[in-house]
């Protein structure tokens, strides 16, 4: 009798919300508690260059974030919404990430695997002033896609950090349009 691999579930909290991973067998919307979604990861390959790294969103334990960012004025009530994707277990080894087992709250509560940002990761940058962060990621449509996807995923939820950054980017867009006229 052959062994059956258990389901491999990845929780998408960033671009995976609007750009699902390969080999998806099923998906369900859900949210995490005790974590924050922050643009606290440098990226020189996806959103920037080695000389001028961009920022990508990462998932961080709330306790870790509190140690790094006493000045982050966003509410503790924020909830990280995302999508739990069941991936064909034959492809689990392709990802190459460190995973944790987390509770993803859905209509059918379950425990899922999830990638989280670690403060000891050399690409982890921590908190930056919101205006500086908005300026850094302004040229990327990534944040707009993510904010739209989160609103579609959970229209009644609110991610104050994400939406505050989106508002700053709208302001930068407006200012750039006015300067070009």
TrEMBL record:
Q: Does the keyword Lyase apply?
A: yes
Q: Which CDD domains match?
A: GGCT_like
Keyword entries, A-Z = Lyase
Citing just one GO molecular function, the answer is:
glutathione specific gamma-glutamylcyclotransferase activity
Query: What domain of life does the UniProt record list for this protein's source?
Result: Eukaryota
Q: Which GO terms describe its cellular component?
A: cytoplasm
Q: Does the keyword Flavoprotein apply?
A: no
* EC number(s) on file: 4.3.2.7
Stored InterPro entries = ChaC, GGCT-like
Query: Example GO biological process term?
Result: glutathione catabolic process
Quote the protein name from its UniProt record: glutathione-specific gamma-glutamylcyclotransferase
Record the organism.
Answer: Rhizopogon vinicolor AM-OR11-026
Organism taxonomic ancestry: Eukaryota, Fungi, Dikarya, Basidiomycota, Agaricomycotina
């Amino acid at each position: 009798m052959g062994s059956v691999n258990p389901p491999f579930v990845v929780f998408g909290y960033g671009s995976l919300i609007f750009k699902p991973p390969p080999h998806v067998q099923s998906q369900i919307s859900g949210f995490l508690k005790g974590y924050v979604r922050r643009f606290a990861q440098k990226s020189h390959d996806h959103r920037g260059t080695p000389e001028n790294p961009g920022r990508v969103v990462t998932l961080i334990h709330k306790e870790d974030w509190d140690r790094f960012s006493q000045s982050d004025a966003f509410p503790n009530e924020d909830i990280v919404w995302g999508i739990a994707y069941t991936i064909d277990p034959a492809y689990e080894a392709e990802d190459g990430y460190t995973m944790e087992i987390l509770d993803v709250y859905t209509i059918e509560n379950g425990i899922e695997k999830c990638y989280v940002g670690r403060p000891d990761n050399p690409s982890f940058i921590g908190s930056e002033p919101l205006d500086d962060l908005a300026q850094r990621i302004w040229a990327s449509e990534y944040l707009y896609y993510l904010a739209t996807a989160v609103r579609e995923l959970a229209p009644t939820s609110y991610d104050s950090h994400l939406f505050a950054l989106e508002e700053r980017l709208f302001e930068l867009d407006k200012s750039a349009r006015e300067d070009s006229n």
